[in-house]
Structures are given as C-alpha cells and as structure tokens.
Amino acid sequence: MSTVREFRSDPGAVAPAKAAVREAQSPLEAVQRLIRAACEDLGLPPAVYEYLKEPARVLVVNIPVRMDSGEVRTFTGYRSQHTDVVGPTKGGVRFHPAVTLDEVKALSMWMTMKCAVLGLPYGGAKGGVVCEPRTLSRSELEGLARGYIRAVAGFVGPERDIPAPDVNTNAEIMGWMLDEYSSLRGVVTPALITGKPEVLGGSAGRTGATGRGVVITIREAADRLGLDLRGATAAIQGFGNVGSHTARYLQELGVRVVAISDVRGGVHRRDGIDVEAAIEHTRRYGSVVGLPGTDPIGSDEVLYLPVDILVPAALENQITMANVDQVSARIVCEAANGPTTPEASEALVQRGTFVIPDILANAGGVTVSYFEWVQNLQNFYWPEDEVEARLEDMMVRAFNTVYKVHAQRGVSMRRAAYMVALKRLADAMAARGWL
Ligand SMILES: NC(=O)c1ccc[n+]([C@@H]2O[C@H](COP(=O)([O-])OP(=O)(O)OC[C@H]3O[C@@H](n4cnc5c(N)ncnc54)[C@H](O)[C@@H]3O)[C@@H](O)[C@H]2O)c1
Questions:
Q1: Weakest-pLDDT range from 60-64, 313-317, 331-335, 355-359
Q2: Is residue 105 flagged as an active site residue?
Q3: Which of 55, 115, 142, 403 is the most core-located residue (most Cβ within 10 A)?
C-alpha cells in the first residue's frame, strides 16, 4: 500500500505549538487549527488539510412536529458528514437549544479524528436538532426523532452514514429512529444506527462504553505517572451517560469521587460520594442537586477542586484561557468533546498537567458502536464480556500508540493523537490516489 511521507525526524518540526496569538473563537476554528498543526508536524502535502478543513457535506433540514396542543412547530436540524476517505461516516445526534451548524461541523471533524486514532473504518459525522428536550413531552420527542430521521433518510444508511446517541438522546430515541427508517425503506435495517436497545440489535455494553473507555485511559495515564488510583480523588462535571458511567467505573477502581455536577448544580463530599446513590437520585429527581450527605457546590466549581483527576463530561469550552489558571488537577481527562480549548490545554500541559485528549479519552463509545454495527451486519451477537475485552484491547492499544508518539516526539498527548489520526487519514488518501 502506498503511504505518504513518514513522521519527519527534524526535531524542529515537532516542537510544541507556539503560543497562539488568539484563542480559537469556536470549536470549528479549534479543530481546524489542530488538524492544520498536525499536518504541519507530519510534513503532509497541503492537499490533506484542504480535504479535511471542512466537511464534505452538510444538510440543514426543517422538521415539522405535531405538538400535543395540535399545532405544528418546525425545528431546525443538521447533519454534517466530514469525510468518507476510510469508510462510511459515523456520529451521534444531539438535541440541545444551543446546537449550531458550526458546532455540528466541528463535532463531525472530531469524530473523524477519533475514529482514525482508534483505527476504525469510519469517517466522522454529527447531527443536531435545535430544541430544548426538557420542554417536550414524550410524544413530541418521538415526533421530533422520527421527523429528523425522515428528513435525512436519503443521506444516511449502514454503508453511508450511521447515527448514534449524543447529548440528550438515548437508546429509546435510536429505537424510534430505526423504526421510522425501516418503515420508510420497507426493510428492517438494524445497522443504520447504533446505541439502540439490545432487543433491536443494540450491542451489549454500549451504554456504559464511553465511560468505560474514559476510565481505561485514566488507568493507563495513572500507571505512566505512578499515581495509585486506590484513594486518588476525582471530580466530574456532567452526570449524564458519560459522567455517570465514568464515576461508577472510577469508584470500582478505588477512586474517591468527591464532586459531581450537572446543569442544575453540583454536590461535594470530601470522603467520596456514593456514586450509585447519585445515579439513583438523578434518575428520580433529574439532578444530583440535593443528594443527601453532600454539600452543594456550583456547576463550574467542580473544575477548580484540588483533585488528582478532573473529568469534564458535559459540553465544549468549559476550560478556556479565562479559567485555566484555577484548574489544579494532575490529570484532566476530556470525556466530553472539546471541553478544553487547545490554548487552555497547552497551558495545562506547560504546567505539568497530563491532559488525555477527547479524541482518545471518549473513543470507547464509537468503538462499541463499531462493534454493534459489525454484529448487525453479521447478524451474530457477542456476549458482554467479549465486547468489554475487545474494547479494553483497542483502547489500550490506541493509548499506547498515542503515548509513544507523545514520549518520542516530545509533544502533548493531544498533538500526538492528531498526528496518529492524520497519518492514517493521509495514508488512506494516498492509497486512493487523492494525493
Ligand atoms: N454518549 C456517548 O456515548 C458519548 C461518546 C463520546 C463523547 N460524548 C460526549 O460526552 C459529553 C456528554 O455526553 P452524554 O452522552 O453524557 O450527554 P448527556 O445528555 O447524557 O449528559 C450531559 C450532562 O452534562 C450536564 N451539563 C450540561 N451543561 C452543563 C454545565 N454547564 N455544567 C455542568 N453540567 C452540565 C447535563 O446536566 C448532563 O448531566 C458530550 O460532549 C458528548 O458529545 C458522548
């Protein structure tokens, strides 16, 4: 197979990024800068960045939904498909009032990088619908989910683009989307979508997969840093799918989870929070706020606690140049996508913080989504222990690959992860004759 130029041995080419003049103004600008920097680090032909600097296709759709009142309301939805250079595109669908086209584009580009770090045969995609799900009834939510997949049905599919859950979407919503698409096509198509209920072909172990992957990377990082996780402390911002599973698996390794927050507020307990109780409390009351035996703390305050491990697991842009000086954790593990701006991340690294970048840290979700798709295509299902063993193997391998570049080239883990990803993508472009 033809390959593009190997990593350059010129040490000048791999020095850490020069301090940026201006902090990236948006996640899109941030990911573009990171891709460009890695292309430069690797000495890749300029065409590689040209192919990757914008998504190959973006869709903007209007989704009419019959509300419970009988009125019809339209919602704006997006789907961004970044590149199909290594395979069909893949990525979640987010329901959130602050969704924008630029955000969805950036998230699809992150997905490309994530899949490439793990060596998955996918390019990145992402979807979003501008809505406040908390104000929608269950039937309105179902109408919106079905309407979204109808609107993009001509552009997705098992060999084209495979959606999955993201912020405020879950297995039940994936089930509705699968049902709608299958009815539309007249063919039951489980491989259309991942993160669906197991009874419809979902994979064992998918729901907790992102959190499990996050904790595998923390364990590997702690090992390299000589940090004993038994008795180490952690704070987690965001207590949805990713945050809650991360908390659970950290506690299983003996970590004391001392603070948790969600959009409504946070809780703190020096001796460690009972994670299962926090999950149950959130299930009942919609928030960790008010968990008995804990002290209240602000949503953002969890970022500034003197803990060993900080896990931002909510949304983008939580740690920026404006607040990075207040972060004192030894390990920052980016469970969310883009929670730290590249400049703030660089500042953390300069201070000796070990930052596990999002495209590595939270790749467990898409990895088990890949396993789900493989199982759907084969109509042959694996037991949970097999899924977990394969996830463990792929996450550890990816961590080691990135860590090796980080150590050998003297670059941050983020820069190393982008270099690993860009090398794979550029090799695929060369093999297709694009370069
Ligand atoms: N679900 C997955 O498999 C997956 C995979 C990879 C990456 N991610 C990323 O992880 C992040 C979280 O996704 P999720 O699936 O857990 O979503 P979710 O909707 O299940 O949970 C999001 C959580 O963040 C909280 N939150 C929102 N704004 C907040 C704020 N300002 N301060 C504190 N908490 C806040 C919410 O209250 C909620 O607890 C997102 O960045 C997502 O893109 C998710």
A1: 313-317
A2: no
A3: 115
